[in-house]
Amino acid sequence: MKHLDDLSQLSAATAAWRAAGLHVGFVPTMGALHAGHLSLVGAARAACDRVVVSVFLNPTQFGPNEDLDAYPSDLARDRALLEEAGVDALFTTSPSAMYPDGFATWVEVEGLTDRLCGASREGHFRGVTTVVTKLLNLVGPCRAFFGEKDRQQLVVLQRMVADLNLPVEAVGCPIVREPDGLALSSRNAYLDPAERTRALALSQGLRDAQQAFAGGETSGPALEAAVRARLEAAAAELDYVELVDPGNLARLAVAVPGAVLAVAAKVGSTRLIDNHALGQPWR
Amino acid sequence: MKHLDDLSQLSAATAAWRAAGLHVGFVPTMGALHAGHLSLVGAARAACDRVVVSVFLNPTQFGPNEDLDAYPSDLARDRALLEEAGVDALFTTSPSAMYPDGFATWVEVEGLTDRLCGASREGHFRGVTTVVTKLLNLVGPCRAFFGEKDRQQLVVLQRMVADLNLPVEAVGCPIVREPDGLALSSRNAYLDPAERTRALALSQGLRDAQQAFAGGETSGPALEAAVRARLEAAAAELDYVELVDPGNLARLAVAVPGAVLAVAAKVGSTRLIDNHALGQPWR
Questions:
Q1: N or C: which end of chain A has fewer CB atoms below 10 A?
Q2: Chain A neighbors of B15, CB-CB under 8 A
Q3: Which residue of A105, A111, A165 is in closest CB contact with B138?
């Protein structure tokens, strides 16, 4: 595995692969890798000739009161995991290389980013769409891979790729969960043992709703209430729970197969998100 | 010359050229072509193996009270000129193909777009940066060519290309003028004969300032006043005249070689712009 830490090195390496007719797959990450990230690498490995992974803790997608400084980081471990996963190139860089003095350009997806996580994380999606545009331009992949755990991010990025005619496919990959149901997240590292147990409320609530839907319940408010009940029982602080259309994230009053139930809540000081597409198998 | 009017046709044609190792040059236009546009084609022809020109009257860069509906258009003439100039592919498209239902993504360059033309044309540069990003992604050129007459546009686009790591060089090309000095513009077609004469005030003012600079005058206000005097004599309505840094468009109090004197004014109902880099040859 090459480790590239220079933007022009990265572009040159991927340009050479493209010129040789090789298909490049790309997995952007913020590091602190877990099995969810590795599933994206596996999907890229299966679909593409060469796989590039970036590890860049992007400051512009964190608000001033968020956890940028606390975000877990272990590059040596990440590198070993990626090497083992058969990645061809790891790209790391610095905030000052990505956002040099005079940087002034932003990519914004309107509407889709106002709701759900966007309502409580002002500027977050603008940071995501801008850095992903930059990374896609640097890497030039034919496919980029994103986890469905960040469902809104995936929908926003697919909208951006279509709107800007970016020559790439943004592929969504299934959520990876712990055996007890907790969706994998780098932020799970913040949870103490008691919080780790309480954090199950998100996935348990989604499973309850999934089972209710399988039993015939299609009322959006009823399905949302099933999640809310678990959160209340675990004293988790609800940010939102909404049944939404998977294409445009519009709120749905009535569930249909594929409708997404999305939840965000704080357990202690840790903000967690999860979602499930109703009628899809629970993993 | 191929005439492509489908986005995926365009991408496929240029991808095939790139795959064959050919360098693609690109000239985006809004049609109503004149010798200024053709000089961009000539620069592209000289620097690249294949030349793509787009003719797209982009609605998102016009304000609600601007001249979108009146903008001159003659595709048959444009096509003949481009054919004669040795262009390989002409791309035309419709607003609904470029901005389909649900379109929501915008590229914005902050700061640089607030001043000069940006101050009086709200949203203009957002429309420009968004459509140019889209076109660059569709065409995938190694170089794109822009006229220095739209100096602020050039600076904004070069900032955008650097900030978003777009794999292209945005090349600026010299202003082309009528024999009497008027900078070529598709909007010159709006001028009646009397206005056409009064419109010379912009270039005459810039020449006066250029001569004053050559004679030792370096005061920004004095150089700006030279332009203002010509505009007043022609009863042209000043929008701005500013001596600015060519890199970041910051206003300069003292002229140095290469400093840009930029002017915008209305002659009758026609808004015209012009500029000159002091110390550079007058063309």
A1: C
A2: 167
A3: A165
